[in-house]
Amino acid sequence: MNLYRVGVKLFCDRGGEIPLVEFIPVFHRWIQTRAIEGLLIDVADYSHIPEGPGIVLVAHEGNLAVDEARGRRGLLYYTKRPSSQSLDRLLSETTAHLARAAAVLAADEELAGRLTFSGSELEVFSND
Predict the structure, then answer these.
(1) Is 1 part of any domain?
(2) Per-residue pLDDT reduced to its tens digit, 58-113
(3) Which residue range is the domain that position 48 belongs to?
(4) Domain tally, the chain
(5) Is the pTM of this model over 0.90?
(6) What is the CATH classification number for the domain harbouring 116?
(7) Cα–chain-centroid distance for residue 18?
(8) What is the maximal distance between C-alpha atoms in the chain?
């Protein structure tokens, strides 16, 4: 069995106090401006679920989310398309995509420098 639904979560250093709904217009703007790579499709609001998936930016290749699972806010990206890549290559590319998205999100003018990611801890998971 080949794993292809892999994800990586980067935890917030600062930004846990930002209301989740503030990420909705940011992600909608990303779709309009193609702020990150990939076919960005829609934004889903799960902010009503305690310790849930938060705000999800749905894309063809994978989903990006401001996530609050287990009470820890972070940005996660998980792939959802079959890949012929080796697992180490897939994890490397998934992590790189997440890092680029985190940099764009942390620099976003609407968040006014209130969001930072330490990068000292990652969570890796598989949905396969």
Answers:
(1) no
(2) 999 999 999 999 999 999 999 998 888 888 999 999 999 999 999 999 999 999 88
(3) 6-126
(4) 1
(5) yes
(6) 3.30.530
(7) 16
(8) 44
